[in-house]
Structure formats: C-alpha cells, structure tokens
Design a protein that fits this description.
The protein is mainly alpha-helical and 215 residues long. The protein has one domain. 73% of the residues lie in helices and 0% in strands. This is Glycerol-3-phosphate acyltransferase.
C-alpha cells in the first residue's frame, strides 16, 4: 500500500503529470498521420518503416512528388514543436529546470518509443533539436548547420543527423561547460545515446556502405 500511495502521489503531482504529458505528446507519430492524410499511405510499411521526415519524403516521392518535400518539412516542424510546446507550458507553470530537462528527455523517449506504435517510433533527431533549442539555442543552431551541410553535400540523412547531434552536443561542453541551473550534461548525453541507439541499423549500413542516399 505504501508503494502504491507513493506511485499515485507521484503521478498526480504537477511534475508527474507533465512527465506523462511529455511522453504522450512526444509519442504522437506525425509522420504516420501526415502520410495517411496527404498521401493515403502507411509509411510504417514503406521504406525503412520509420515515422521520420526522411521516410515520409521517400514514401511520398513515389506517390505524390509535388508535395513530398512540403510534407517532410511539416513532419520535421511538428516533431520539433511537440517537445517545445510541452516545455513552454511547463515553464509557464513554474516547474524547476531539473523537471524541464526531464520533460525534454521524456519527449524524445516518447518519439522514439511511442505508446501509440507499440513502443516503436522515429529516430528522435527533430524532437531533440527542438527541446535542446529551448535551453541551448546556439548549440541547436550549430547542430542544424552541420546537419544541413552534410545532408546537402553527402545526401545521407542518417550521417547528417548523427554528426549534427554529435556536433551540437559536443559544442555544449565548450560553450556551456557548466549547463545553466542543472550543472550537468547528463540529459544531453542520454539524449545522444538514445539517438545513436535508434540509428544502429543505419550505422551498420553506413559501415557496410549500403546506406541509401536522399535524392
């Protein structure tokens, strides 16, 4: 009974409510929804089966090439905003920075392991950039620049994502050796680990030189 009481108290507290909200909102599979709405397709059964923008782009290029890039961009924007909006709501409610960073991490976890997709999901890059940008906008921008440049010249989405994340998070150790308010890089490191874990199949294909390019 004591354990049950503790669990109930936690999940009915303001922090607990926001943690659950972050996970659920982070788990909304916008790529899947947009694929069905705009293309009448199930991207879970096409290409890599990912709900991310790259798979949305590839899938729609075959059926509706005229809107493929627009829907892919909308997917990126939506995946980034879902974490940002929960964080801004939490800020307005006066939650501590420690709680806000936990919310950021859980939004990424929700995207990568969505409760709406049997705990499968996307790679977490757009959502990560969004939530990190709330706290460390310069690092997020630098990561996006690296992502854009590698994506533009090498045309390999996974490589661009991995290097963008590594560069952005790596720069945080230089620009903010002491992360404001929480004094630790742990949330950033954990987010990076999750992203790399979700990219393991891509990393294997990169090593084997079998990773597809985005044309």
């Amino acid at each position: 009974m004591v354990v049950l009481t503790i669990v109930i108290d936690f999940f009915t507290s303001i922090n607990g409510i926001f943690y659950v909200l972050a996970y659920l909102v982070g788990g909304i599979p916008f790529g899947l929804l947009y694929g069905k709405i705009f293309g009448g397709i199930n991207i879970l059964k096409i290409g890599s089966g990912s709900i991310g923008a790259t798979n949305v782009l590839r899938a729609l290029k075959e059926k509706k090439p005229e809107i493929a890039k627009k829907v892919a961009f909308l997917t990126i924007l939506s995946d980034a905003l879902k974490g940002i909006l929960v964080l801004l709501f939490a800020k307005s409610m006066g939650l501590t920075y420690e709680a806000q960073w936990m919310i950021a991490f859980l939004a990424v976890i929700g995207h990568c392991f969505s409760p709406f997709l049997k705990f499968e999901g996307g790679k977490g890059v757009a959502t990560s950039v969004g939530v990190i940008g709330v706290f460390l906008p310069l690092e997020a921008i630098l990561g996006l620049i690296v992502w854009f440049l590698i994506g533009k010249f090498l045309k390999i989405s996974s490589l661009a994502s991995l290097f963008g994340v590594l560069f952005g998070v790596g720069m945080s150790f230089i620009l903010h050796p002491d992360i404001p308010y929480i004094h630790t890089h742990t949330p950033l490191v954990l987010i990076t680990i999750v992203i790399f874990y979700k990219h393991i199949p891509n990393i294997v294909r990169l090593i084997q030189k079998k990773e597809q390019k985005v044309i």
